[in-house]
Amino acid sequence: MILPTRKLLPLAFVSLFIFFALRSPAQAQQQPEAQPPIYLGTAWYPEQWPESRWDADLTLMQQAGIRFVRITEFAWSSIEPTEGVYKFDWVDHAIADAAKHHIYVVLGTPTAAPPAWLTQKYPETLRIKEDGRRDEHGNREQFNWANPKYRELCRGIAEKMAERYGHNPNVIGWQIDNEYAAESYGPDVQKQFQDWLKAHYKTLDNLNERWTTAYWSETYTDWSQIPIEEKAGNPGLLLSWKRFVSDTYRSYQKNQLDVIRANSDRRQFITTNMMGWFDGYDHYTVSQDLDLASWDDYVGRGHLDPYRNGAAHDLTRGFLRKNFWVMETQPGFVNWAPVNTVLDKGEVRAMAWHDVGHGADAVSYWQWRSDLNGQEELHGTLIGADGTPVPVYSEVAQIGKEFAKAGSALAGTSVHSQVAILHSYDSRWAINWQRHNQAFDPVTQIVSYYKPLREVAQSIDIVPPTTPLDGYKLVVAPGLEVISEAEAENLIAYVKNGGHLVLGQRTGMKNEDNGLWPEREPGPLAELLGGRVDQFYAIDDKPEDTVPVTGIWGDTTSKIWAEQLSTSAPDTKVLMRYGRSNGWLDGQPAVITRKVGKGQITYIGAWMDDATMLRAAKWMAETSGVTAALGPVPMGVDVYPREGEGKKVFILVNFNKAPQTVTLPSAMRSVLDDKEVRTVSLPHYGVAVLQAK
Ligand code: GAL
């Protein structure tokens, strides 16, 4: 359990002690056993089933090793069927019944699904969609997140729930709302946005200058003239809107968070379930008030991509820079992909261990049982409409056994990396608004660096550019297109203190208003680099557009994007050059590097293939002293190190179709079969949990 900070744990123990001391023996018997270090969980909707059925459900859950259920996150109409009339009995019973089965509870505030009476009585709480029409009841997320009346009602229900369950020993945490994703675009929100702009830019002259509104006569003479733009618009306006959206989600969340905090034990965590690479808002902004980051990890169609998905885990771990929860994941398949393929037998288990390896302290399946009616009738579940297990149940039960077995080895461990990849929402948005080459997907770009670096280092942190970087041997910024002065200073200090900073294509192109830095890329880092981008070129995927690149990482071609670099300092070295292509790039530098005191800064201007990037990653590791966390393993075997005080655990998962053997650098305890091993044999999707001595 990673939840409250270490400082708060003693407090939690004291309150637990007082609680137990005051309870009658009968009550005490219902207490769940000690909280597990790694939780298996599921989303349970008791409000859809007669109470007489619950015990059967909870028995099956207990048999599968499930240790928490998340409930109530869409249950507003069952908790408050009419305004001001609350029905908590069923929630009381669900929590108490779960406790009898040693199952803890995470309570969701039900605000993602306002009841019909609410939106009928307060239609102003319904969101205005992008097409200008008001949303209506019948789905979920139909609310306006900026509406004061809606916030008042959300606060009300959250407060009532917290008053009732904030000290319930079987409730371990809170999830606010569900997957924030739907903004509102009406005049009320526009006015709030304009006020937000005024608070940020102070004067219209300042805003006009920083957005270069003289362009296309965009100049504003009154705040009320400023529109909302989501996709096409002045880049400064677009970025400001996204920042406003992020701040509004934060305040929407804080509105509920404050009343939960005020009425609950500190041991109860507060989270919200986020969505991996989803970029609707700045997750760093929204996370900062939470105790725990969590996300919903769905593969959808096809199979787990351990790199892209692994990077999403590392991204989530970076929100609060500590372990996180997988609050939802698919028990085999979903219902919303173009083809809702199933994960292979064994893949659900491999994925669960991949999650834990990346720092998840909980893996929870959505959902427990098929709804008899409702939009998601066909989604994967653990038990069917008839109330008996579906095939994947037994695999999840195996995970339950294994989590219990590995719990003590993993207790108190987390992920520590030598390498950081810098990520910012500003940059991803900026690239997406002006991709320049439709193939330039900023997440694909990040993963093109993440993948080889993970092969080499076996562990990566993904953090924002404002993070203190001292502890890292290598910091890589794949596409930090937007960079503020403060962020640039952080990176410059890192290099001056002896770090190796590697910049990828488009880094340092734009300032914090999403306008161009006049120095050209990498903007405020150009002086330190002793070089810059003279010009960037979008590369089409036709054979005649091929751009050869040659140098210390071998011979390859550049795709999607190629930047023509130049050096201005005598000690800036060229590592790779372009071959003959469009004439402009011929013979020009593609990768340059410069040693600065004990530090180093490198700029990579060409988007290159995986094999070349692997050689590049090896070079980055060698020049920075980065070593593999475990040591050499066959390609396709993922290594996940987790460390705690005096403890080192390695989780291995084989994603190859063929079985693989890993020779360990020293003898270790194989936790799942409790024996000492020097080599590990892993079938397809095989898992090993190893504790170093
Ligand atoms: C999630 C959502 C769940 C459920 C699930 C289905 O995005 O939070 O409530 O709808 O998708 O895959």
Automatic annotation (TrEMBL):
Substrate binds at residues 140, 178, 336. GO terms for molecular function: beta-galactosidase activity; metal ion binding. One of its GO terms (cellular component) is beta-galactosidase complex. Its EC number is 3.2.1.23. InterPro entries: Beta_galactosidase_C (IPR013739), Beta_galactosidase_Trimer (IPR013738), Class_I_gatase-like (IPR029062), GH (IPR017853), Glyco_hydro_42 (IPR003476), Glyco_hydro_42_N (IPR013529), Glyco_hydro_b (IPR013780). GO terms for biological process: galactose metabolic process. Residues 636-691 form the Beta-galactosidase C-terminal domain. Residues 44-405 form the Glycoside hydrolase family 42 N-terminal domain. Residues 1-28 form the signal peptide. It catalyses: Hydrolysis of terminal non-reducing beta-D-galactose residues in beta-D-galactosides. The active site is at residues 179, 328. The keyword Metal-binding applies. Residues 418-613 form the Beta-galactosidase trimerisation domain. The keyword Repressor does not apply. Keywords: Glycosidase, Hydrolase, Metal-binding, Signal, Zinc. Belongs to the glycosyl hydrolase 42 family. This is Beta-galactosidase.
